[in-house]
Amino acid sequence: MLAVISPAKKLDFETPAKDFPSTECALLNEAEVLIKRCKELSASDIASLMKLSDKLAGLNAARFGEWATPFNTDNAKHAVHSFKGDVYVGLDADTLSNDDLEFAQTHLRILSGLYGLLRPLDLMQAYRLEMGTKLDNSRGKNLYDFWESLITNTLNDALKEAKSEVLVNLASTEYFKAVKAKNVNAQIITPVFKDYKNGQYKIISFYAKKARGLMVRYMIDKRVSSPQELESFDYEGYQYNAELSSAKEMVFTRKLED
User: Fold this and answer.
1) N or C: which end of the chain has fewer CB within 10 A?
2) In the beta sheet, which residues pair with residue 223?
3) pTM of this prediction?
């Protein structure tokens, strides 16, 4: 199977890159087109467009200005080790073995507003450009217009490489909107994670994000190859809930101790 996840706003480019072979993003040429547009933005433009503080806007203006190819381990870092948000806390990529990373390279993809679609070992430079950003560009009024079918076509190539008939959607709604689901050459299954609170099961954002990373880690640890195997996911107390699940959604629930 193949899984997709979202990127994260929080990055780590202070920790040195791992001594492991790296790859180049399949859509790097497209990223260069976007970077050229982003370099036209002032810090004030970025603050307004992305609703950022002046400090963060200045940081990201500097990142856009410094972004340059070719990438190497001196100026870039493996994608899976660069993102540090809640999903990546669950994934805990720093503890993956070399064999695990090789498996993830074929069976995991990271959606990105700048890079389109990243493999775990693709090199990337620091950026912030969320998929929902309304950045006008040569192809339209936002990033969904820019990426059009490029992400979906590249995802289909990854599905073919992985010999997968199932795509596990562990991305946020904002990011998965960049995928043209009707054109994906696979069955799409979306795991949903709910915690028991105030007498009912509900999605709690922080826990759900971390659980998406935990699910990816489970898929890597167990070398999962079918939806049926996902039903055994039990990390951090989650259990498959057949009653709440459907053909398109696999629901996992847990009750936290008071």
Assistant:
1) C
2) none
3) 0.96
